[in-house]
Design goal:
mainly alpha; three-stranded antiparallel sheet; two-stranded antiparallel ribbon
Length: about 450
């Protein structure tokens, strides 16, 4: 505890780091305040229906990512998700579109152009999503009496404009946090939205356990311990890497007759290179089998009904299989092993025992395929944990924090932010947040 307090004091001593943290926290507060502002012309007291409709499934995931703004018909109802969708599309297009491939090789200037393309694509997605959200409000459970000024052209125009502005504003906040603050701004905005639902979910579970004499405080303590264990396992999944040893040839330093011995380095291949993307893709596809529930064919209808229960066995079995498949797919398109091999060859590096070039690319691809299997199975297991705990009697809102996309995002963003803070501390000769053991701080030179 003393070490933690000492580390916090060290963080506060660094003016630049302190200002970045304060700016980051301030912009996140602005985002959360904006998420509480309802669209003009909608009565916020009559939104219980939409809250029930967004308690699970893909809509529940969208509501979680926006911190409940989706269910509140807020000006930030679409949150940062259109920007995330645009980023994924641009990333996938970068594999097939030569122009984007060229921009990726141009360094900082190319990155700026790609960011600009992503922003314009976000606007294009909003042109579709914003009207769809407004039109679907009655079907989501909002009664006609909630539309105080009716649903005329003025209401549609102003609401679509405000939803578009809200997402653009969220995108601007995220980029400002990335440039001027600490951590990845877009990821932090998603994380703060997920965390916003944590207190109410925990209190709902605690109230149910105590008032219904369903285990009481002891059961709550056991659940918290299990939750912490799941977090530790998720941290291991996010940080686990397979290090591939790389040897660099001996080089002659200019002005020095002696050769410099080749340095040994490593290529870190992550156990879970795809992150949370396989879960998001699989979650989106899980709506397809459920559509068969409306079929007139008895066989197809029975299959559709089996897949409408997101906590059922067949739903989660297919969900897990899709996650494993998408883990391989997304890893294959985002980790260019052949390009890694070519860059390694041009830099004078090689993997001991493996010929440079094509053989190195095949070797890296084989290793990546082997470690992706346990990583994808582990990812699928964490993704279906909420369904397992729900079947065990845990409240749905609290069970969502036991796994799935929400938990992995929280863990990933927290690790990334801590690493950035840690880098500032180490650069100023302080002990880092990730440091273990007791070691005296180095004196400032």
């Amino acid at each position: 505890m003393k070490k933690l307090i000492s580390t916090i004091q060290d963080i506060w001593k660094i003016d630049e780091l302190r200002e970045k943290i304060i700016l980051t926290l301030g912009l996140m507060v602005v985002y959360r305040l904006a998420a509480q502002v309802p669209l003009p012309g909608i009565d916020p007291t009559q939104l219980s229906g939409i809250a029930n409709k967004t308690s699970s499934g893909l809509l529940g995931l969208l509501n979680a990512f926006t911190g409940g703004a989706f269910a509140k018909a807020s000006v930030m109802a679409l949150g940062i998700m259109p920007y995330i969708s645009a980023s994924i599309v641009v990333q996938l297009m970068g594999i097939a579109v030569p122009y984007l491939q060229k921009l990726q090789k141009e360094g900082e200037s190319g990155r700026k152009k790609i960011n600009q393309i992503t922003r314009w694509l976000t606007i294009a997605i909003l042109i579709v999503q914003a009207p769809a959200y407004i039109v679907s409000l009655p079907s989501l459970g909002i009664p006609e009496s909630a539309f105080l000024l009716g649903r005329g052209p003025l209401f549609y125009f102003s609401s679509i404009l405000l939803l578009t502005t809200g997402t653009v504003f969220a995108m601007w906040l995220g980029e400002k946090i990335t440039d001027k603050g600490i951590g990845n701004g877009i990821s932090l905005l998603i994380m703060i939205g997920i965390i916003a639902r944590f207190p109410s979910a925990f209190m709902q579970e605690a109230t149910a356990r105590i008032t219904q004499s369903n285990g009481g405080l002891l059961m709550i303590l056991i659940e918290v311990i299990i939750w912490l264990v799941v977090i530790l396992l998720s941290v291991q999944l996010v940080t686990a890497v397979r290090k591939i040893a790389v040897q660099y040839a001996r080089r002659t330093v200019a002005g020095n007759i002696k050769d410099v011995a080749g340095a040994r380095q490593y290529i870190p291949l992550k156990l879970n290179s795809a992150g949370v993307m396989p879960i998001i893709f699989a979650q989106a596809l899980m709506f397809v089998p459920g559509l068969m529930a409306n079929s007139e064919n008895g066989f197809l209808k029975s299959i559709g009904v089996a897949f409408t229960d997101m906590f059922g066995f067949w739903y989660n079995l297919l969900f897990a299989v899709l996650i494993i498949i998408f883990s391989y797919f997304y890893t294959a398109i985002t980790i260019p092993t052949n390009k890694m091999a070519d860059d390694l060859k041009r830099g004078g590096g090689f993997i001991p025992g493996i010929r440079p070039g094509k053989d190195t690319g095949e070797y890296l691809d084989t290793i990546l395929s082997r470690i992706t299997l346990p990583g994808s199975i582990f990812l699928a297991a964490i993704a279906i944990l909420p369904a397992i705990f729900t079947k065990m009697g845990v409240q749905h809102g609290w069970a969502l924090f036991y796994g799935g996309t929400s938990l992995l995002i929280l863990v990933g963003v927290a690790i990334d932010t801590i690493q950035q803070i840690n880098a500032y501390l180490l650069n100023r000769h302080y002990d880092g947040l990730l440091k273990t053991g007791s070691k005296k701080r180095k004196s400032i030179a």
